Automatic annotation (TrEMBL):
<dbReference type="InterPro" id="IPR000486">
    <property type="entry name" value="Xdiol_ring_cleave_dOase_1/2"/>
</dbReference>
<keyword id="KW-0408">Iron</keyword>
<dbReference type="InterPro" id="IPR029068">
    <property type="entry name" value="Glyas_Bleomycin-R_OHBP_Dase"/>
</dbReference>
<comment type="subunit">
    <text>Homotetramer.</text>
</comment>
<keyword id="KW-0560">Oxidoreductase</keyword>
<keyword id="KW-0479">Metal-binding</keyword>
<keyword id="KW-0677">Repeat</keyword>
<feature type="domain" description="VOC">
    <location>
        <begin position="151"/>
        <end position="271"/>
    </location>
</feature>
<dbReference type="InterPro" id="IPR004360">
    <property type="entry name" value="Glyas_Fos-R_dOase_dom"/>
</dbReference>
<keyword id="KW-0223">Dioxygenase</keyword>
<dbReference type="GO" id="GO:0018577">
    <property type="term" value="F:catechol 2,3-dioxygenase activity"/>
</dbReference>
<dbReference type="Pfam" id="PF00903">
    <property type="entry name" value="Glyoxalase"/>
</dbReference>
<protein>
    <recommendedName>
        <fullName>Metapyrocatechase</fullName>
        <ecNumber>1.13.11.2</ecNumber>
    </recommendedName>
</protein>
<feature type="domain" description="VOC">
    <location>
        <begin position="8"/>
        <end position="123"/>
    </location>
</feature>
<dbReference type="InterPro" id="IPR054560">
    <property type="entry name" value="XylE-like_N"/>
</dbReference>
<comment type="similarity">
    <text>Belongs to the extradiol ring-cleavage dioxygenase family.</text>
</comment>
<dbReference type="InterPro" id="IPR037523">
    <property type="entry name" value="VOC_core"/>
</dbReference>
């Protein structure tokens, strides 16, 4: 087994201003499958091709944003290993009991210096993707409802001291730096793309004065044609689009940024290259992020909203 330790992004809990409006958007427009509701009033979803019970949880609140972002780890020994490693590094952790989230085992929580609550867990109930386990078809009817991404893929978070967050993810949790953008004076890093797998990124950060901010949670599609279909579905449903359809120079993903009804940005994208532990990080200058096409390779400009609009 090659991928061990932190396996992948597991779940994101997103705050929405109106629950039923949020359910309509995430279920009927984005096309996630509703998998449950709990006694705290939270609604759980998964993408059609995901195997575990949930990957997106929404709850109603007075302000939009993200409560926490979680990674699934290999097993309970790995969870204990990372809990101890975080403590040895000097970070406080706490445990959320099994069942506090539907169909989810114990979670280890800690706060990054950027102000984001991150969780690790080993167990979430396997529910499958409604395809046969023997000789399965490549897709099923769930793949056609709404935008219908195959998975919740990564997030981009905004907060202070991203350098310290990078150090924790790399030195304690085994992530690798895949791409970075330098500050205008080229003395530091304004943005970071990190991977726990061989995806171009599993989490990204932009340096920002306010802690704990969400730029976007991203959902993966299988083809450019499906990204264009997503744009059609957004237009049909009056979803406000931020950027795209276009391609990022950074990660090479082909993308649309848009906003849910509460103002949380989300991304639907396809592509991106594969990275391996022996690859060197790619560096972009601040000008490269904008005029160099790092953000938007087709239009080669830094959209104002990229650095200013977060929840
Ligand atoms: Fe993204």
């Amino acid at each position: 087994m090659a991928i061990q330790g932190v396996l992948r992004p597991g779940h994101a809990q997103i705050r929405v201003l109106n629950l039923e409006q949020g359910v309509h958007f995430y279920r009927d427009v984005l096309g996630l499958l509703e998998t449950g509701r709990d006694d705290q009033g939270r609604v759980y979803f998964k993408a059609w091709d995901e195997q575990d019970h949930n990957s997106v949880v929404i709850r109603e609140a007075d302000r939009a944003g993200i409560d926490f972002f979680a990674f699934k780890v290999l097993d309970n020994d790995t969870l204990l290993h990372f809990e101890r490693a975080l403590n040895d590094y000097g970070l406080e952790t706490s445990r959320m009991p099994a069942g506090e989230m539907l169909e989810t085992g114990e979670r280890v929580r800690f706060t990054l210096p950027t102000g984001h609550l991150i969780e690790l867990y080993a167990d979430k109930t396997w529910v499958g993707n409604d395809s046969a386990e023997l000789n399965p078809a490549p897709w099923n009817a769930n793949a056609e409802k709404g935008i219908a991404p195959i998975r919740m893929d990564h997030c981009l978070l905004y907060g202070p001291d991203t350098a310290a967050a990078k150090k924790i993810l790399i030195e304690v949790l085994g992530f690798q730096l895949v791409e970075r953008t330098l500050t205008p004076d080229r003395e530091g890093e304004i943005a970071l793309w990190l991977s726990c797998s061989n995806k171009a990124h599993d989490i990204a950060f932009v340096e920002h004065s306010e802690p704990g901010k969400l730029h976007h949670v991203a959902f993966q599609l299988e083809s450019w044609e499906k990204v264009l279909r997503a744009a059609d579905i957004m237009a049909m449903n009056d979803v406000p689009v931020d950027i795209g359809p276009t391609r990022h120079g950074i990660t090479r993903g082909c993308t649309i940024y848009a906003w849910d009804p509460s103002g949380n940005r989300f991304e639907t994208f396809m592509g991106g290259y594969q990275t391996y532990p022996d690859h060197k990080p790619i560096t972009w200058t601040f000008e490269g992020l904008g005029e160099g096409g790092g953000l938007d390779y087709a239009h080669r400009k830094l959209h104002d909203t990229f650095l200013t609009v977060v929840t």
